[in-house]
Amino acid sequence: MALNPRILSWAGRTVWLVGASTGIGRATASRLHALGARVVVSARSQEALDRFVAEHPRSDAIALDATDREAMHDAAAHIVNVHGRIDLAVYCAGTYRAMRATDFDFDVAQQHVHVNYTGALVMLDAVLPHVLAQAKAGDPKLGAGHISLVSSVAGFRGLPQSLAYGPTKAALINLAETMYLDLQPLGVGVSLINPGFVETPLTAQNAFKMPALISPEAAAKAIVRGWEGGQFEIHFPKRFTLWLKGLRLLPYSLYFAAVRRSTGL
Predict the structure, then answer these.
(1) How many Å apart are CA 62 and CA 146, to the nearest integer?
(2) Exposed / middle / buried, residue 97 (Cβ in 10 Å: 0-12, 13-18, 19+)
(3) Domain with 191 in it
């Protein structure tokens, strides 16, 4: 069942991806460019963004720190001034370091909050006024626009080594659900992306064998299919994510036992 307006064509649509220098963000930006979207990529690394633009003619790049409120507002205004509107804004910036309570590091945990969650709020602060104006204008062809947040299956329930990362992703899940309730009646699309293990610089830190590991390009295909199909939650690969969804239904006594058996932690 489609919970969002389906995106049947990317031609002429302006897409802004924040956190697109590597991994899922970059692969998704590349796929959208191939499908005809006007792609704007943002990240801290100017060098990585310049490489993307060189490989994707007619794309645009705006280097910024996702937690810099003024820079995000300036970027959103620039995109609207140049392209007229923002059809899809995607927050895919993130940081990850394995952490357990026995090795708690406040500074690292706080960095996760800033990058993984506060940055998403900063993007919303910059984008929502433009998207709400588009909803009021009521463009019959392009619609109001769409906001998408990249969370993780690590946000479903508590997992070992996820003390810093998991809570920020759980916050994004709740944020997306709440935004949907507020914005869907206005015609604004809201989607939540919950990947399993994807081969990125962040997951390269993991010392364990990651089940159902997929490439960023496979992740990008699943994400774009989800947007095109009007999905609210886009999760993949299903052979892994459906198993984790099943674990969410267990009472704590069974859940904790299952996680310990599965991870050995």
Answers:
(1) 20
(2) middle
(3) 14-263
Residue pair 175/149 in contact by the 8 Å Cβ criterion: yes
Cα–Cα distance measured from residue 83 to residue 218, given in angstroms and rounded to the nearest whole number:
29
Helix (H) / strand (E) element for 14: namely strand 14-18
> Residues for the chain: how many in total?
265
Give yes or no for a contact between 69 and 46, defined as CB atoms under 8 angstroms apart.
no
Q: Helix 46-55 and helix 23-34: axis angle, to 10°?
A: 30
Domains of the chain: total: 1
pTM given for the model: 0.94
**CATH number of the domain to which 230 belongs:** 3.40.50.720
Phi, psi of 44 (to 5 degrees): -80, -30
pLDDT tens figures, 165-190: 999 999 999 999 999 999 999 999 99
Mean predicted confidence (pLDDT) in 93-116: 96
> What is the residue-wise DSSP string for 173-216?
HHHHHHHHHHHGGGT-EEEEEEE--B-STTGGG--SPPTT-B-H
Query: Residue 103: which residues within 8 A CB-CB, separation 6 or more?
Result: none
Beta bridge partners of residue 192, listed in sequence order: 149, 233
Q: Quick one: how far is CA 152 from the chain centroid? A: 9
